[in-house]
Amino acid sequence: MKPIIAAIAVAALLNLDDARELKWRDYVDSQLSQTDDRILPPPPDIAVYFGNHAAELNAFRVHPATVEKYPNHILLTRILVAHALSHHDWNDLAAAWEMQRDLWAKRDLSARMIALAGSRMINGAARKMPLPAPRWFGEVLAFDARSAILDSHLKIAEDVSDGHASHDLSDSALQRFVDTLREPYDRAVARDVKEALRTASQAMAASRECGLDDDEFTRRITASLGLWNYLRINVPSLGIVWQRAARFNAEREATAKILDIKSGRVPSAASQCSDGTWVVTPGHIRFTKQIEGQIPLEY
């Protein structure tokens, strides 16, 4: 079955239009926000949905398909994570990870932002799964999300046009003359934006902080743009993806250490994050820096 045909079939078989009305996000978020292993049963309507689509969900777990529309992708990811939590089943998370891998393979920043959101859910649910962790989960823990986000930002820089700025003015001799005068400035603006985006993105990817300020990226771009560049006053805010990718590193460290604890091992207090370490006591861990986020950095 071709991927796009499979995606259409998945949407129909799993009745995603009706499933969208159920409170998947509320259920998943409420379980992932807990610091312990407790998992509450899903609401009755979600439990009924699972019962009515058991065969379809099982078929999807065996042969995960790319879902064409991003809203359907994130919805199906939440359905799989909810099923994994309520059924204590790694296979649901494995299928969800295959979906994220498809999006991580795209250079488009929107695709990778969706993949990042899905990957964080999978990692958050993994800390509550039964032992042993399957081998594929090591790929989630090791995946370099920051480099993938950097690659997407570099693509944006590559796509910045060196051509003329757009003008909605009449095609008069005077306007053609004005455009001719503006052309060198417009090209200089484009080159300046490219370089500022590359410089700021590379700095964010090189940072080892896990508690990044989401305004840091905008500040770096603004600082890199020439004082003469009119775009300095209207830099788009793209820092939230860097903030989330940075926290994802701490979240994965937490999951790895929790799985160590559950396996009877004593995790290390060391961290790859430059702005914190782990406080380790018998059966418990806690990151030393408070970083706002839905998945707790403690257990």
List the helices and strands and how they pair.
Elements (H helix, E strand, L loop, with lengths): L2 H11 L2 H4 L4 H9 L11 H9 L1 H9 L7 H18 L2 H15 L4 H18 L10 H6 L2 H15 L13 H34 L9 H9 L14 H24 L15 E4 L2 E4 L12
Helix pairs in contact: 3-6, 6-7, 6-8, 7-8, 8-10, 8-13, 10-11, 11-12
Structure description:
- With 299 residues, the protein is mainly alpha-helical.
- It has two domains: 3-143, no CATH class; 151-241.
- The protein has 13 helices and two strands, in the order αααααααααααααββ.
- A two-stranded antiparallel sheet has the order 1-2.
- Helix 6 packs parallel to helix 8 (109-126), helix 7 (90-104) packs antiparallel against helix 8 and helix 8 (109-126) packs parallel to helix 13 (239-262).
- It is globular.
- The relative contact order is 0.10.
DSSP summary, beta strand count: 2
Question: Spans with pLDDT under 50 lasting ≥5 residues?
Answer: 163-170
Supply Rg: 23 Å
End-to-end separation in angstroms reads 43 Å
The share of residues in extended strands comes to: under 5%
Average pLDDT? 89
Largest sheet: 2 strands, antiparallel
- Overall, the morphology is globular
- Count of DSSP-assigned helices: 13
Helix content: 55-70%
- In the sheet with the most strands, the strands line up as 1-2
Please identify the oligomeric state: single chain
Query: How many individual domains?
Result: 2
Reading the helices and strands in chain order gives HHHHHHHHHHHHHEE
Structural class: mainly alpha
